[in-house]
Specification:
Layout (H helix, E strand, L loop, with lengths): L3 E10 L1 E2 L11 E2 L6 H13 L6 E10 L7 H14 L1 E12 L6 H10 L3 E7 L3 H7 L5 H13 L5 E7 L6 H13 L4 E6 L7 H4 L9 H17 L3 E4 L2 E3 L6 H7 L4 E4 L4 E4 L2 E4 L4 H5 L8 E4 L2 H12 L6 E2 H8 L8 H9 L3 E4 L2 E4 L1 H5 L1 H8 L1
Parallel strand pairs: 1-4, 1-11, 2-3, 4-5, 5-6, 6-7, 7-8
Antiparallel strand pairs: 8-10, 9-10, 12-13, 13-14, 15-17, 16-17
Bound molecules: iron/sulfur cluster.
The site of iron/sulfur cluster has 11 residues, from loops.
Length: 374
């Protein structure tokens, strides 16, 4: 049987210490999660359901939730299921998402032994008032302890997540966050704008939140882009910056429409021209029988073309027009030349050496541009 090469594996760990005020991810407070053991065994059997397929992985990503809440034994048992099921390429990028205060000598040691070589730590802000507003479980000192502990265990490839548009945040406080984080020399920094999602505590108390206005948010976006680029980070995706060579291999697969497998609650896969995904209801997931997915669809050419363009334009590299033509039998430029030319004239888009991509200016208003374009 042929080996399917270079796939990414996403593993969803849906437990957090408590819910942050802005969070609409599929995660649950874990104290009281009586179903924790059950979840891990359901997850391991879902992983093992791929054992007949001969798949080689070159990226593994434990996300959540807070995967660093797993005990060493839990983490190692999930990894054992992965190791039994898949072939792992030498040099496989292996990321674990972590939150400050949940990293310990024990779990860092287990991560190392299982081959984890990249951590992604959620900080969001260095300022106590902003962290409190967000409902984070940590302050900056606690983040620093976790960061330094991880470094002392040899983790040198670390992403730090930051946020702008936080209630009470100012341009100055955001600048201070950027500078302080830059001084720690992480290899990768993600900077997300706060979105108030329906159903979150923030959504319910929207009227009482002191949010930075749109102009200030825009200034914060450009502040991050200008500061990080001036300090050696490449702005390779709308919300992501890296030192050269440290782009997240796993996430690049999503944006380049490469195949990946997702396991666990609410996880989606794109594999064998199918997009399929699990429920976000723990009760349903735990009773999941074999390979039963809540959503399972063969991706048609039209949808595949839409996704390819939509996701590719999130990257600074954009996508290749000739590759698009080869894959989908359509000329992307010819079929929308008028609107593309007008975006080029306005400084939002560029076409160079067969690639079409958004400019920095285009990145900031990408949603509006992509809606008109695709
Ligand atoms: S730590 Fe992350 S996943 Fe967990 S509640 Fe906060 S934002 Fe959501």
């Amino acid at each position: 049987m042929m080996t399917t090469d270079s796939l990414g594996l996403y593993v969803h760990i849906p437990f957090c210490v408590r819910k942050c005020n802005y969070c609409d991810f599929c995660s649950f407070p874990y104290s009281g999660a009586a179903w924790r053991d059950e979840y891990i065994s359901a997850l391991c059997s879902e992983i093992r359901s791929y054992s007949h397929k001969k798949i080689r992985l070159n990226s593994i990503f434990f996300g959540g939730g807070t995967p660093s809440l797993l005990t060493s034994d839990e983490f190692c048992s999930i990894f054992a299921a992965i190791q039994d099921t898949f072939e792992i390429s030498p040099g496989c990028e292996f990321t674990v998402e972590a939150n400050p205060k949940t990293l310990s000598k024990e779990n860092l040691d287990a991560f190392r032994k299982c081959g984890v070589n990249r951590l992604s730590i959620g900080l969001q802000s260095i300022h106590e008032n902003e962290l409190k507003k967000l409902g984070r479980i940590h302050n900056f000192e606690e983040f620093l302890d976790s960061y330094n502990l991880a470094r002392s265990f040899g983790f040198n490839n670390i992403n730090i997540d930051l946020m702008y548009g936080i209630p009470e945040q100012t341009i100055d406080s955001f600048r201070e966050t950027l500078k302080t984080v830059h001084d720690l020399s992480p290899t990768h920094i993600s900077v997300y704008g706060l979105i108030i999602e329906e159903g979150t505590p923030f959504y319910k108390s929207l009227d009482s939140l002191t949010l930075p206005n749109e102009d200030i948010e825009c200034e914060m976006y450009y502040l991050a882009a200008d500061f990080l680029k001036a300090n050696g980070y490449s702005h390779y995706e709308i919300s992501n910056y890296s030192r050269p060579g440290y782009e997240c291999r796993h996430n690049l697969k999503y944006w380049r429409c490469d195949e990946y497998i997702g396991v666990g609650l609410a996880a989606y896969s794109y594999f064998g021209s199918r997009r399929y995904g699990n429920t976000n209801d723990p009760r349903v997931y735990l009773q999941r029988d074999g390979a039963k997915y809540e959503y399972d669809e063969v991706i048609g050419l039209t949808d595949a073309a839409y996704e390819y363009a939509m996701l590719g334009l999130r990257l600074a590299e954009g996508f290749s027009l000739s590759d698009y033509r080869k894959r989908f039998g359509e000329d992307f430029y010819q079929s929308r030349s008028e609107i593309i030319d007008s975006f080029i004239r306005e400084g939002y888009l560029l076409i160079e050496n067969d690639r079409i991509f958004l400019t920095e200016r285009g990145f900031y208003v990408s949603n509006a541009i992509l809606t008109e374009l695709i």
